[in-house]
Amino acid sequence: MFAYTVRRVIATIPVMGIVALFVFSLLYIAPGDPAAIIAGDQATPEDVERIRASLGLDRPFIVRFLEWLFRVLQGDLGVSIFTNLPVSHMIKQRLEPTFSLMLLTLTFALSCAIPMGVVAAWKHGTWIDRFVMLFAVLGFSVPVFVVGYVLAYTFALQLDWFPVQGYTPLSNGIGGWVSNLTLPAVALGSAFIALIARITRATMLEVLNQDYVRTAKAKGVGQRAILFVHALKNAAVPIITIVGIGFAGLIGGAVVTESVFAIPGVGRLVVDAILRRDYPVIQGVVLMFSFTYVIVNLIVDLLYTVFDPRIRY
Amino acid sequence: MSSSAPLLDIQNLQTHFGTIDGVVRAVEGVSFSINAGETVAVVGESGCGKSVTAMSILRLIATPPGKIAGKILFKGTNLLELSEPEMQAIRGNDISMIFQEPMTSLNPVLTVGRQIGETVMLHEGLSAKDAEQRAIEMLTLVGIPAPARRVREYPHQLSGGMRQRVMIAMALACSPQLLVADEPTTALDVTIQAQILELMRDLKTRVGAAIMLITHDLGVVAEMAQRVVVMYAGRKVEEGSVEEIFLNPLHPYTRGLMGSMPKLGSSLHETGRSKLTEIQGQVPSLRKPIIGCAFAGRCPNVTDVCRQMAPAIEEKAPKHLVACHYAPRAAAAA
Ligand SMILES: Nc1ncnc2c1ncn2[C@@H]1O[C@H](COP(=O)(O)OP(=O)(O)O)[C@@H](O)[C@H]1O
Ligand code: SF4
Ligand SMILES: [Mg+2]
Q1: A214 and B60: CB-CB below 8 Å?
Q2: Which ligand lies nearest to the CA atom of residue B48 in the structure?
Q3: CB contact under 8 A, A230 and B107
Q4: How do residues A34-55 score in pLDDT, each as one tens digit?
Q5: Cα atoms in the Cβ-side hemisphere of radius 13 Å centred on B80
Q6: Nearest-angstrom CA–CA distance, B28 and B45
Q7: CA B203 to ligand 2 center in whole angstroms
Q8: Which residues in chain A have Cβ-Cβ distances shorter than 8 Å to B114?
Q9: Does any CB of chain B come closer than 8 Å to the CB of residue A312?
Q10: Nearest chain A residue to B62, by CA
Q11: Which pLDDT value is given to residue B317?
Q12: Among A211, A218, A310, whose Cβ lies nearest the Cβ of B104?
């Protein structure tokens, strides 16, 4: 198990290397010339060249990539073209809101989606099942920002149950933190709930037909324990796999959600950076998100062994 | 109830399934009883409703699409009238069941100890720690070596025979009065079959449970049972003591099954397992009501009477019931 963990961690290195290469190439494949943008509208071609040279944009790609990679490995993500602040510092300042939003969304989504999927499978073919499936289709097809605006309009503006926007740090008390993040988490979570509820239902339908479920019933196990212990544990592997894969969507959704609810997180940071073509910041954020995704999927892989003893590494 | 009343008394059991293309009459008016401590074998070709009968007793049939009618009296209480929680208290406690497929009947993600222990935690309120202790005792009882280690293992770490032993341990953990065993050895290879049967016989005398033993295997019937119920197309066609059924089968279907069977006695053990023999013809569809005798389509003795009128089940010899118009009546019977 330990050996496997080490191997898996090592295996992420090439993945991260490719991600790094891609992130670095963004500068080349994206439209627009950063040197020209920084130089401004009145700049002469000479000015632009000077800035290009000062950014190191005139040297060979591979040299610049390796230099950049070396600095990144030391935690130096470069300096923002716009604010002149270290990118790592800018990201660090924005991490708490983003991770708070994701954590709350994940908790909320899983605690809704799994019972929904389980009950839908148990009561399959009934109106409960149809309702869950309808929700799953809607949750998946309505974009995050639409859900976000509808929620904000209804529950913040009209009913005044939650703040319309903004973020309260956890250090200022959990109440404000939760109340600020509730609507964003629901908005961001709706597609995720749809995804997880569907896979839970599908997997549970299969599991509930297995012989061992009948055995459990024949022993006198109650319905709830049959569903949530005997069956759900067998359905866990496909579910956590989808959670891992769906995490990418969660990251994308977080960027949008932060904009809708004016949450000062990494997502907002990267949107602003994109608008300004602030490449070091874009690169830093994309790298950070990619790293998070890889880590989440590493955890998912390791969790398999917790839920299914037949999986051994 | 008086002490002579049967432990289980099934009266006119009817289990039907509603399907898209009609009602499947899987069990159609079956009655039989099992006394305390007795082993009753239920035999018949596959698809004749043995498993459905067994699962109806424990109410393991999903309703809908299933529909169970009749009476299933267990110690005088009609199980079909109990609430689901009342039924849960009986399952695994007073009546338990073992299934044909040991490879798939255990939960792959729960330890063996947990699965055995769960039963006693549920029905006897034992703590998790005591339950594990009981699980170890049960594993010892069913002859699994190194039980203290095995309780922590998962089913995939055990062989098929071991898993069936675990199933038996699980079924007997609460000392049930009735054990329903649905082809418990069919999926196992011959040497393991013999061991499992030996174990069941041994445990039966120790625990004192009655057994409803469903089997394809007439050798098993001869070794294990006192009485036999023969089923065909969801009906009971013959019932009697093992001796009566083997020495004096009266229903043409039973005779067909016995076709190549050696006579009851020492030769049984020597010839080993004797599967039910193939009988010519097709089992009638259970999707439409059968007019006349269900066996008419395959019976060598069939007449027009058989095709028009279903034979009633009658006592043709003492305690020997047969549903056939032409079964000879023994002189001694009324
Ligand atoms: N859930 C179900 N829906 C429809 N038909 C069923 C269902 N379960 C069993 N049956 C039918 O009931 C009949 C008896 O099955 P079963 O009791 O399993 O036979 P066996 O004697 O081999 O154990 C079969 O024809 C089978 O197709
Ligand atoms: S009633 Fe007729 S058809 Fe049915 S078993 Fe007897 S002889 Fe055969
Ligand atoms: Mg069967």
Answers
A1: yes
A2: 1
A3: yes
A4: 677 667 777 788 877 877 777 6
A5: 22
A6: 16
A7: 40
A8: none
A9: no
A10: A214
A11: 84
A12: A211
Contacts of B105 in chain A (CB under 8 A): 211-212, 214-215
Supply the ipTM of this predicted assembly: 0.86
Q: Which residues of chain A lie closer than 8 angstroms to B104, CB-CB?
A: 210-212
Q: What is the pTM of this model?
A: 0.83
- B88–A220 C-beta distance less than 8 A: yes
Query: CA dihedral in degrees (B31, B37, B39, B40; nearest 10)?
Result: -10
B92, A220: Cβ pair inside 8 Å?
A: yes
pLDDT tens digits, one per residue of B221-254: 988 899 999 999 999 999 999 999 999 899 999 9
Long-range contacts formed by A287-291: CB under 8 A, 24+ apart: A287/A19, A287/A20, A287/A23, A287/A72, A287/A77, A288/A91, A289/A251, A290/A16, A290/A19, A290/A23, A291/A16, A291/A19
How far is residue B244's CA from residue B330's CA, in Å, rounded to a whole number?
12
Query: Which tokens in the block code for residue B203?
Result: 């445990």
